[in-house]
Amino acid sequence: MGIPEKIKEIQDQIHKTQINKATEFHVGLLKAKIAKLKREQEDNLHGKTVHTGGENIGFDVKKAGDATIVFIGLPSVGKSTLLNKLTNAKSKIASYHFTTLTAIPGMMEYRGARIQVLDLPGIIEGASGGKGFGKRVLSVARNADLVLIVLDVFQPHHLDILKKELSEAGIKVDQKPPDVVIEKTSTGGVSVNAQVPIKTSERLIKEIARLYGIHNGRIIIREPNLTDEQLLDVLNGNRVYVPSLAVLNKIDLVNKGFIQEVQAKIGNNFIPISADANINVDALKEAMYQRLDFIRIYMRPKGGETDYKEPMIMKSGSTVQDVCNKIHRNMAKNFRYGLVWGKSAKFAGQKVGLDHKLEDEDVLTIVKVAGSI
Ligand SMILES: Nc1nc2c(ncn2[C@@H]2O[C@H](COP(=O)(O)OP(=O)(O)OP(=O)(O)O)[C@@H](O)[C@H]2O)c(=O)[nH]1
Ligand SMILES: [Mg+2]
After folding, report:
1. Spans in the chain with pLDDT lower than 50
2. How far apart (Å, rounded) are the C-alpha atoms in residues 206 and 189?
3. Out of 137, 235, 251, 328, which residue is the most buried by the measure of CB atoms under 10 Å away?
């Protein structure tokens, strides 16, 4: 029996089981088995690519600019129309499904940041399981700094479908990695050290760990209300945690009342726009910029004037090393020390090393080894 058949068989078993306190353990374990099989399926797929060198997963796009945003949406919701509005790209637009067949990059310049925007083919329900271009599209989304979920005003319920497909592909949007640490030991069996209240029974956690080949070790849980799914995410590894932003497109076709109805259905966590009629597109640009959570670093040459005009645009959490790497690939190698003024500095002009974490609007001087470029 192949992996898909095994998954199907377990799914059928779950469907047949009435979920209650008595069956919780059994069902929890079955779900873990499915997660593990899906992981194996993923591994096989990646493994194949490496060996044959052909059949690329994802599309060939090089990351560029200060951050990368990808568009995820069903076909014909207006992704390409939006890309063309936001950037100088000319992605093909048409009223039929699957107009876009590959990743189309554009560059959006906003507040001094260069933001790469990637238009992608539409995905459909079942994408993460391999339907349509699904797997390739989703594998591009793995590397994004922000996923922009594009919805059609008449199909707002697609939000749930898209989030589910992303999640199934290991892309967790708007979540933090769960605070769970697994320390493997060589003897002593598995112990669970929950430092916060948890819902899952210790027995089930231990059994799931065993399923994943952990026979000895400590599972330290500091994530409040850890769900089974989060635990499986930790055990499976290879999960990415990406922020998202949702837009509701084509609002030129409806009135205000209609949008309020949509809000009642899916909440108001989206930006209503019309890519075609250029409604709210500027507000969207600002929201994208804010959601990327950039910090600006002003560079001051040693003994010179600070450049306040063109800051380095960095991701929040960036270190001096990240700045060096962005300036020049040899910069970190020739680094002697840095001097920092601003929020991250204990005092003005603090001397720092490569691992110093910077804050928004810090001023930074990099002092290099004498004679290096
Ligand atoms: N009324 C209206 N139509 C729009 C809007 N945005 C896009 N469209 C139309 O919707 C259709 C699909 O637009 P595309 O931009 O090709 O959609 P897509 O999401 O890229 O589609 P695929 O590449 O097939 O996934 C076209 O006929 C567009 O003109 C909008 O804001 N309002
Ligand atoms: Mg398109």
Report:
1. 47-56
2. 9
3. 137
Distance CA 271, CA 285 (A): 11
Clarify whether residues 274 and 298 are in a common domain: no
For residue 49, the model assigns a pLDDT of 40
Same domain, 154 and 188: no
Domain membership flag for residue 225:
yes
Please count the structural domains in the chain. 3
- Of residues 138, 132, 360, 122, the one with CA closest to residue 240: 138
Q: Which domain holds residue 307?
A: 294-368
Confidence (pLDDT) at 329: 84
- Type of residue at 307: D
Q: What is the pLDDT of residue 55?
A: 43
Q: What is residue 61's predicted lDDT score, i.e. its pLDDT?
A: 84
How many A from CA of 363 to the centre of ligand 2?
Answer: 42
**Atom 2 of ligand 1, residue of closest alpha carbon:** 250
Give the pLDDT of residue 373. 62
Burial letters 111-137, b for 16+ CB under 10 A, else e = eebebbbbbbbbbbeebbeeebbbbbb
Which residues sit with Cβ closer than 5 angstroms to ligand 2, an ion?
Answer: 79-80, 99-100
Please give all residues whose beta carbon lies within 6 A of any atom in ligand 1, as ranges.
73, 75-81, 93-95, 97-100, 121-122, 249-250, 252-253, 274-277
Nearest ligand to the CA atom of 280: 1
